[in-house]
Design a protein that fits this description.
Length: 301
């Protein structure tokens, strides 16, 4: 996942050191919600947004919020920890004023930053305070997570710094919602190009950490895909030399299976749908149901 250079912006919690540490009791979820949590955890691990942790001090639960498309959005319940954090009163733009500032422009475009909050890292000393528990493991956030206090202020401060030469001239921005405006249609492409160039600048230092230059060949070494270690372990039993990372990959591999060189997530629906048709599946279920009824009828009272 790309990210903003920590030299530009990081999120700090400023938790009151005298506040009582809280560990929430683990909640249970239905099978549907549990699967949604597992899939989101795998995605976040692959994006390097979270990391496993032993012996946490703070511990929060996850909550699932329904999305308009029928899926679930996983969030962390930071209610208790947020009470121990002071409020950041950094001013957010007035929406009505932003509308007024856009009047009279010929072309207007709107952009919504994709997972914008996750592009800002947490300060290293704050990460373990964001620990959350799932059905199978404990993790902490490495990036600014939804639900943390003052995230809007941190994000607005960052974009004001990055786009300081453009705000009011050819763009307006409210947290992660960007408006690009041009008085003349002929200038709009140039304005878009300027914005995209500024968007790339904050991540240059981060990208330098993730992509290593091969000095001898003058080429870039592409980072390994998140699933590559799992694929190697299942195919040849090979693990990375780093013990914590190897242990994490070994745990992740339990959720997948290797078929004809391709990686598949283990689930009940997947293999069933591949092996039988819908009619065959219904016939099997009816046969099982009939066997259960017959067993009840012939059982000794």
């Amino acid at each position: 996942m790309p990210g903003v250079d920590p030299a530009v912006s990081v999120h700090r919690l400023y938790v009151d050191p005298h506040d009582e540490l809280v560990k929430q009791n683990k909640r249970t979820f239905s099978e549907e919600k549990g699967e949604a949590i597992r899939e989101e955890v795998v995605r976040l691990l692959g994006a390097n947004a979270i990391q496993e942790l032993l012996f946490p001090t703070w511990l929060a639960n996850v909550v699932l919020v329904p999305k308009p498309n029928g899926t679930w959005q996983m969030c962390t319940d930071f209610t208790r920890m947020n009470k121990a954090c002071p409020k950041d009163s950094y001013p957010l733009p007035n929406i009505d004023r932003l509308v007024d500032l856009s009047i009279g422009y010929t072309v207007v475009d709107f952009l919504d930053a994709f997972w914008g909050y996750h592009q800002i890292f947490l300060a290293e000393e704050e990460m373990e305070k964001t620990t959350f528990v799932t059905e199978y493991d404990i993790y902490y956030w490495k990036v600014m997570a939804f639900g943390l206090k003052n995230t809007g202020a941190t994000y607005q401060r960052m974009v004001n710094k990055v786009f300081s030469t453009q705000i009011g001239r050819n763009m307006e921005i409210y947290v992660d919602d960007i408006l690009i405006k041009s008085r003349e249609a002929a200038d709009h492409v140039a304005n878009l190009r300027e914005i995209f160039e500024n968007l790339r600048k904050p991540e240059e230092a981060f990208r330098a950490k993730e992509v290593m230059d091969n000095a001898s060949q003058g080429e870039e070494k592409v980072p390994r895909p998140w699933y590559q270690s799992i694929l190697e372990f299942l195919s040849i039993g090979d693990l990375l030399e780093n013990p914590p990372v190897a242990n994490k990959n070994k745990k992740q591999s339990l959720r997948y299976t290797l078929l004809d060189g391709a990686l598949y997530r283990r689930s009940f629906q997947g293999p069933l749908m591949k092996c039988v048709t819908r009619e065959e599946g219904l016939a099997v279920v009816e046969e099982m149901h009939g066997a259960c009824v017959e067993a009840i009828l012939i059982a000794r009272p």
